[in-house]
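Design job #97: recover the sequence.
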């Protein structure tokens, strides 16, 4: 929708851009719930109007890296130019669970697959319960998700961008805290074997060594790369 059409529609409804976004989200929630669907919203909705969300909402938390976190969003510059999409910040999962809502965690710097500087060990060591210490709040973190965005991939490299790092995150999510590996060497053999299985089945999973999507350090079988 171009700016002229958007401005005209906002003027006709008497809403600002943020108010229109809020109306859209809450109305969509009503429709989804009326059909028996689960509702999952990005964290911007919680940050902007969390008290208005349905108590059945699952908030998908995607905190930026600490050095990029914005805990005090810029103030609006006009009645129709305020964007709701900039309100990301650290510590949102804790606030979500304290509000009694369920949460899915997807750290941008650890569980975003298009961040090629994150290694498989970074994916494994990410803690979805960071700063959430109360047992009743921890239960509201129903899981995590690795996210594959399209800015840095195409059909030629998508598989090696996803694998084997997504597998490391999966193992992290289903492993009890007391059984977590302390050193990469405890997992390397198993993940290398899994990567080989993927290769043998036609999935172009990347080597474990190096960053996301790195080339093999030497030729040979997937066990020695």
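Job complete. Output follows.
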């Amino acid at each position: 929708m171009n700016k002229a059409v958007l401005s005209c529609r906002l003027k006709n409804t008497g809403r600002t851009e943020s108010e229109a976004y809020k109306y859209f989200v809450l109305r969509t929630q009503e429709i989804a719930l009326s059909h028996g669907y689960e509702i999952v919203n990005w964290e911007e909705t919680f940050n902007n109007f969390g008290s208005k969300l349905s108590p059945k909402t699952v908030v998908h938390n995607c905190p930026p890296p600490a050095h990029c976190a914005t805990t005090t969003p810029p103030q609006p510059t006009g009645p129709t130019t305020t964007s709701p999409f900039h309100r990301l910040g650290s510590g949102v999962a804790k606030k979500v669970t304290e509000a009694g809502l369920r949460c899915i965690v997807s750290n941008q710097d650890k569980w975003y697959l298009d961040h090629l500087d994150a290694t498989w060990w970074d994916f494994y060591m990410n803690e979805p319960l960071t700063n959430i210490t109360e047992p009743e709040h921890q239960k509201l973190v129903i899981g995590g998700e690795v996210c594959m965005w399209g800015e840095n991939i195409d059909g030629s490299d998508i598989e090696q961008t996803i694998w084997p790092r997504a597998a490391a995150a999966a193992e992290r999510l289903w492993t009890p805290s007391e059984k977590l590996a302390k050193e990469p060497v405890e997992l390397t053999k198993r993940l290398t074997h899994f990567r080989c299985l993927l290769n043998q089945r036609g999935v172009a999973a990347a080597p474990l060594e190096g960053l996301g999507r790195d080339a093999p350090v030497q030729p040979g079988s997937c066990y020695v790369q």
